[in-house]
Amino acid sequence: MAVSVVLLVGFVLLSVAEYGSSQTYNAIYNFGDSITDTGNLCTGGCPSWLTTGQLPYGDTYFGRPTGRCTNGRVIVDFLADHFGLPLLPPSKASGSDFKNGANMAIIGATTMDFGFFQSLGLGNSIWNNGPFDTQIQWFQQLMPSICGSDCKNYLNNSLFIVGEFGGNDYNAPLFGGKSITEVKGYVPQIIDKITNGVETLIGLGAVDIVVPGVLPIGCFPLYLTLYQSSNQDDYDENGCLKSFNSLSVYHNGLLKQGLAVVQSKYPAVRLMYGDFYSQVTQMVQSPGSFGNLL
Q1: With 60 as the cut, is the pLDDT of residue 1 above it?
Q2: What is the predicted pLDDT for the residue at 4?
Q3: What CA–CA distance (Å, rounded) separates 249 from 168?
Q4: Which one of 36, 110, 125, 240 is CB 3.0 to 4.6 Å from 172, fit for a cystine?
Q5: Residue 58 covered by a domain
Q6: Is 64 within the bounds of a domain?
Q7: CB burial readout 161-176, b (16+ within 10 A) else e
Q8: Dist CA 30 CA 40 (whole Å)
Q9: How many CA atoms lie within 13 A of 195 on its CB side?
Q10: What whole-number distance in Å separates Cα of residue 99 and Cα of residue 146?
């Protein structure tokens, strides 16, 4: 992801956090994919085949590759700075102190587990072992070192970021030749998995939870290249592919509905939807309005 998008999305989450601008947190605990991974694939040293483990990744901020999919910082780095907390260590980093936060996100992560993709004939399209349920298990393994026997109180005063999840769940079948119509059929299952995971975290003690939606994938250079069309009606006024953006809109609509149901079940919990879609669309419409982020 380009650094400009990463920075903008970071500011999106910061704006969500404005609802609690006077709030302080013990820690931030993050779950997700490459958008927020802070190095879980590089805890023992970046593998030679990993592009993000090589320069220019990390060049503009850390001065070296850290496993982040950017040459600067990712979303949760900005959030940690906003709340006066240290940068979140990847959860697989042995010897780290996770009391002020941990990052379970890992490049390539999906919402659904491997069996789901295998049932679709897409087992070869999924290459890591860090779906959402597994990331929750990683977090549970860390809990004794984070909060001992008083986890409810400690986690009540921590911020949880869940996602975005869904991007890789759609990339795999779309790049594997599935139609938009077929892929839209998977969305309810993916949303159920996200909301069930959120409820699991609530059961562990989470109270403040940000759940971002997916980005407008029809504006992504990769999609614009792979699915370019000679029919101008396939594009919106921003030059983005309508059909792929409609998938993102459908996902985000169902996600908001699902979160509303969860919120009604747990009125003491504060669920915050992170609107990546609208903010990235604004950047596509008027990139100059966001300054020179490169």
Answers
A1: no
A2: 44
A3: 16
A4: 125
A5: no
A6: no
A7: bbbbbbbbbbbbbbee
A8: 12
A9: 21
A10: 5
Q: 148-179 pLDDT, tens per residue?
A: 888 989 999 999 999 999 999 999 999 999 99
CA angle 107, 246, 180 (to 5 degrees): 75
Domain boundaries, position 207: 3-38+74-290
Q: Which residues contact 280 (CB under 8 A, 6 or more apart)?
A: 5, 8, 9, 215, 216, 219
Query: Structural domain tally of the chain?
Result: 1
Pick left, alpha or beta for residue 166 (phi over 0 → left; psi -120 to 50 → alpha; otherwise beta): left
The answer as to whether 146 is a domain residue is yes
Q: How far is CA 140 from the centre of its chain?
A: 19
CATH number reported for the structural domain that contains residue 165 in this entry? 3.40.50.1110
Tokens of 10: 């970071």
Task: Please report whether residue 60 resides in a domain.
Answer: no
Q: What is the pTM of this model?
A: 0.92
Residue carrying the six token digits 């001065």:
63
